[in-house]
Amino acid sequence: MTAPAALDRWGGVLMIGALAFSVPHEFTGAPIFSHLAAACAFGGLALFAPRVSRAARLFLVLGPLVLLAATITLPDWPDATLTALARGAFIAAFFTALTAIRSAAITDPGILDCGRFLAAQPPGRRYLALTLGGHLYGLVLMYGSIALLGALATENARQEPNPEIRGHRSRRMLVAVQRGFISTLPWSPLTFASAISLSVVPGATWAAALPLCAVSVALVSGIGWALDTLFKPRLSAPAPARGPAEGAWLSHLRPLYTLLALLGAAVATLHITTGVRVFGAVMAIVPLIALVWVTLQPGTRGARGATLARRAGAFATQEMPQLRSELSLLVMAAFIGTLGSALAEPLAARAGLDLTAVPTPLLLLAVFWLIPVTGQMGMNPILAVSLFGPLLPAPETLGISPALMVCTITSGWALSGATSPFTASVLLIANYGGVSPLRVGIGWNGTYALICGAALSLWILALAALA
């Protein structure tokens, strides 16, 4: 084994350690667990460093520079640093937990069958099916939903002999998958959008924000479906008639909605009975479900213990290292954003910047649009929200509920996921579509984003008026 490969393997093991220490911290609040989780998370990043992408390496270099600036300028830099380290460790642990359920899902034949069934729907309901599929798969697989359904959509489109129809079908199917995925961002407790937004808005809870965010989900999903229905591509010749996909929806989608029901019930039960926050319950429950799921898959009967040990070892030493660049970007974005916010706060105070003087509706719109706009400049939403979120006035000083602020941030996050050529969702769709990320973000989704942005802005203004 080469030295870099050995470092990767140990880096993956340390990410498991970050998760293992983060779970008891969520339940007890004991600082020692947070410190140990941070040591594992950032130790793992150090081991990953020699083989990460250029962008991830830039973040790994920028982090110590921000820390140096904080050490020089902030009197309370130790506390600010510990807060940033804890935020980064949480991201590492949360990512590891969600990757565990994705690892179990992608080897389940039933989950793959669900995806093939959705991709095989006739044109009249294919967009709606893939948007629904992108949403449901996104709840479990994160960006893996785009990888899975994107591959199946591309495979389906290639079977079309007419190149004109094939091009339109590929674009519409991939866009449907992407928009289904981003519609999870405003509300799902299994996304970084909710996790980070709730952590930077004082007094915010997931349950209180859910009704407001659900309307954002309906707007993002419904507008996409309406645009696809109203503006169908014009073909030079009539398209051939196609029959419906074989099989019943309930039977084909049973593995997916059964998993979601089990996951939701388990997380809700743990959250209600223990009082631990939803994201702590997710980190505790999801890996356990993944372990049990692996042992129940075909081919494990009679060797479940050996299969579980093999899969767990491969997850830590092979699958997690393959995500080293993504992990480095996400964790360092949280660290840099949190510590950068601590640096910016005294600068803003000395400059006389008083955001409470800005009319609340205008401030909310600025927050909403800031996320997709900075996304066009290459700023990851985790970095953007971690940076400016703590600088925002407390919701009660603005006369609004914390839920409204969370809805504003997560809605902007969803818009960035559709348009930013630097986000994983756009990059993956561009890869499957064989086009540039800019083409996907602005060309395929530009009109959609503007209409969604306008509708979401009106929704935010309406909520502000009713506050």
TrEMBL record:
The chain crosses the membrane at residues 32-49, 56-74, 86-106, 127-153, 206-227, 256-272, 278-296, 327-344, 364-392, 404-430, 442-466. Keywords: Membrane, Transmembrane, Transmembrane helix. The keyword Transmembrane applies. It comes from the Bacteria. The keyword Nucleotide-binding does not apply. This is H+/citrate symporter. It comes from Roseivivax sediminis.
